[in-house]
Design brief:
The protein has 357 residues and is mostly helical. It is built from 13 helices and no strands. One of its GO terms (cellular component) is plasma membrane.
Length: 357
């Protein structure tokens, strides 16, 4: 979709795209959180309160078996211990932990999305779609450093997916004289850099999604992403104003591009808000390495949208073989490993691993 946006007359630059997408995405998800997230938070508060009361009651009953003076002392201790954990949990776990998680994920995603948006100015949609699949190898590597234990089949699937993506990226049949300049070293480096940050976000999301409701996490990280985009815009605007350049240079064709506005709205609501929520929800149960193999289908969608929206690029034998490898990778990675109950390196052990924060 961004390549379609860049193909318009007077297209917006990366700063304008990130600002519009980030702010609209954050607004939608914060609204969703205000509607649905508060109910989940109240339920969590009630559960925590019940747990604290049960603990206090148990401690009080135990202390009643002793002398009255010892019982009084025990009750005072139970009262203090029941209040302190409840306050600590509310103050030191819920609010700060969600804020820390949202800030970390928001910054990684801002870097990933921003660099990818810049890279798409220098390469085609299909090539970028496959280069970004370097995450197929980066994600399990990063996950292994945080305590996750991807199964043998997941590793095999990642390698097959990466091989398939490289095969398609090596297919230069769609490149003609006019497009050759797009395949620049800078564009490739930008896409690969964004792949690293996407992988890092995927791994860390796998940790946080198990502990924080999806709508809370999606809203929080999108709010940080939107704030970072706004800060970037302010810095760019200040620089342009100091240089005497009009702010309209950030999007020269903003007044006459109805299609451009439509694409911007779709990018914010579809790949932005909806994808952020679904990603957080999915990774509450799916380990990062397995999630990345699912993401390996992205190049297939890139080809499909490039064909429908940009006139398409020829699907040669090399492209078809590479695409088949990506699909096969997903099938291989999803197969369970029968480790005979050893629990050493199978999928079960990988799914239940809890990375250190």
């Amino acid at each position: 979709m961004l390549r379609l946006l860049y193909s318009q007359d007077g297209p917006p630059g990366p700063v304008a795209i990130m600002l519009f997408r980030g702010v609209l995405q954050a607004a939608v998800l914060v609204t969703a959180y205000s509607i649905f997230g508060s109910k989940g938070q109240q339920a969590a508060d009630g559960s925590s309160s019940s747990s604290s009361e049960a603990t206090a009651t148990s401690s009080s009953n135990g202390s009643a078996a002793g002398s009255s003076s010892e019982g009084s002392s025990g009750e005072a201790g139970a009262s203090g211990s029941s209040e302190a954990p409840s306050f600590a949990e509310a103050l030191l776990r819920r609010i700060p932990f969600t804020a820390i998680a949202s800030t970390e994920l928001g910054l990684w995603l801002f870097l990933a999305t921003g660099i990818q948006t810049l890279g798409l100015q220098l390469t085609t949609a299909t090539r970028a779609g496959f280069l970004i699949q370097a995450t197929a190898l980066l994600t399990p590597l990063l996950a292994s450093f945080t305590g996750e234990k991807p199964s043998r089949n997941v590793w095999i699937g990642c390698i097959i997916a990466l091989a398939g993506c490289l095969a398609i990226a090596a297919d230069q049949s769609a490149t003609d004289g006019d497009d050759a300049a797009l395949f620049s070293l800078g564009g490739d480096a930008a896409i690969l850099s964004s792949a690293f940050f996407f992988s890092l976000a995927t791994v860390r999301l796998g940790t946080y999604a198990r502990l924080i409701p999806a709508v809370n996490l999606a809203a929080g990280k999108s709010l940080v992403l939107g704030g970072a985009a706004l800060a970037t815009f302010c810095a760019a605007a200040a620089s342009m104003t100091a240089a005497g350049d009009p702010l309209t240079d950030l999007w020269p064709g903003y007044a006459s591009s109805g299609l451009g506005w439509a694409v911007m709205c779709y990018a914010a609501l579809g790949p932005g808000a909806a994808a952020a929520f679904l990603h957080a929800k999915g990774q509450s149960v799916v380990p990062p390495a397995e999630a990345q193999v699912i993401f390996s289908s992205v190049p297939l969608w890139s080809i499909a949208f490039a064909f429908l929206l940009l006139g398409g690029e020829p699907l040669t034998t090399t492209t078809l073989v590479g695409g088949a490898a990506v699909v096969a990778a997903g099938i291989v990675a999803s197969r369970k490993v029968d480790d005979g109950g050893s629990g050493g390196g199978g999928d079960k052990g990988g799914k239940q691993a809890s990375p250190d924060l």
